[in-house]
Amino acid sequence: MAVVGGSVAGCAAALALTRAGAGEVVVYERAAGALHDRGIGLAVHKERYAELEAAGYTDGSMPWVRLTRRTWITAEGGGHAGRLLGGVPFPFRSYAWGPLWSALRARIPASVAYVQGAVVERVVPAPDGVTLCFAGGGEERFDLVVGADGYRSVVRAATRTPEVPGYAGYLAWRGAVPGELLPEPRSAWPEGEATTVTFPGGHMIAYRIPGARGEGVSANWVFYATPPSTAALASADPTSLPPGRVTAELTEHHEGIVERYFPPYWQDVVRATPRSAAAVQPLYDLAVPHYGQDRLVLVGDAASVARPHMGGGAVKALQDVVVLERSLCAADSWAEGVRAYDAERSPSGRAVVDLARRLGRAQVEATPDWAAMDQRTVEDWWRRISDGERGFGGHALERPAP
Ligand SMILES: Cc1cc2nc3c(=O)[nH]c(=O)nc-3n(C[C@H](O)[C@H](O)[C@H](O)COP(=O)(O)OP(=O)(O)OC[C@H]3O[C@@H](n4cnc5c(N)ncnc54)[C@H](O)[C@@H]3O)c2cc1C
């Protein structure tokens, strides 16, 4: 069996297939270089984390930072750190992406071949097997292929329902500030607080994450806004701009909003961000009708892409894999296991994407009059848009983990 993609979902899928009794498992990862330093911070609902830990996909060894409250603030009528509009409980843990990937990679048994620098160009399903065709030539045939190859999945493209993700129309600027560069006074940003700095047409959320190499803390921020109409996004189907490749136009747009609408403390946080730690990601929506078809299975962002406002993309990817393992273990055949997986995960993928779209609409595309809000209106508004918190941070796994 093969897994295409060796990121969060791919590493976990290799583990799931092995646990479900697959003989030979090969992971093909396009990136040839180090993966552990990709990504920045990640917030995970503490109950979702406990479920994943119980299922044996994570453990307590990774460094994390406890988050307790999410607040919304405005510069209007506020002091150095802005004026508090309101807050809600935020029972999350934050992690750095690198240690999460490294921990999952370390869990893959030695019997699995993890091949880097292998670009799968085409996937050709047939009734008796699936052929993977590689860039530069070469083919391999497998009984089952798991697509863990992200939002532009080539495995998804080979299914009978090859949906493509739709650009949401706005971007996420992301950055991280090492703890020692955070501005004074430190008391301006309470410990455990995920702070949302509001402005017309968007917001920035910031929370502390474990520092690089597991020491101290860093600040992780994600700023959501629509690009200027003239922005050089290159196409109607834009791709990510990694650190060092963010265009001057997009940087100026971001800095202009920060200067105009942010309280001084939060302006300083953004300005303290090393240029090498700032990236831009366009946001997409995708929900496929089927997570599993015949000999093809989709997990993680290959199956569904939810805007990051619901703080559960990595959780969703790992939950897919937990359910895949359980479905395959409970079935008498691989085909039956794939059908059971599809029946359980397809509806939950759609629910998460719908919720994330609603959260994006309320916090970016059609922002309220932020400055007029107070604790009561923030609570009411949040309850309304987050579905009473039911799905925020990822829905609970409906059945106990295997
Ligand atoms: C701004 C932002 C903030 C986020 N914040 C959070 C958060 O706080 N909490 C949270 O839980 N989630 C968050 N997410 C979502 C989370 O990062 C993703 O949902 C999750 O990492 C999905 O992982 P994946 O393994 O499915 O896909 P990816 O990480 O995209 O991995 C796909 C892998 O496949 C490889 N690949 C692709 N094509 C091929 C090919 N043809 N051949 C071989 N290999 C291939 C790629 O190199 C890559 O390694 C956020 C996302 C964004 C954009």
TrEMBL record:
Keywords tagged on the record: Monooxygenase, Oxidoreductase
Gene Ontology MF, one: FAD binding
Keyword Amino-acid biosynthesis attached: no
UniProt cross-references to InterPro entries, sorted A to Z: DhpH_subs-bd, FAD-bd, FAD-dep_Monooxygenase_BioMet, FAD/NAD-bd_sf
Domain FAD-binding: 288-355
UniProt keyword annotation of Iron present: no
Residues covered by the 2,6-dihydroxypyridine 3-monooxygenase substrate binding domain: 167-274
Name this polypeptide is given: 2-polyprenyl-6-methoxyphenol hydroxylase
Originating organism: Streptomyces cinnamoneus
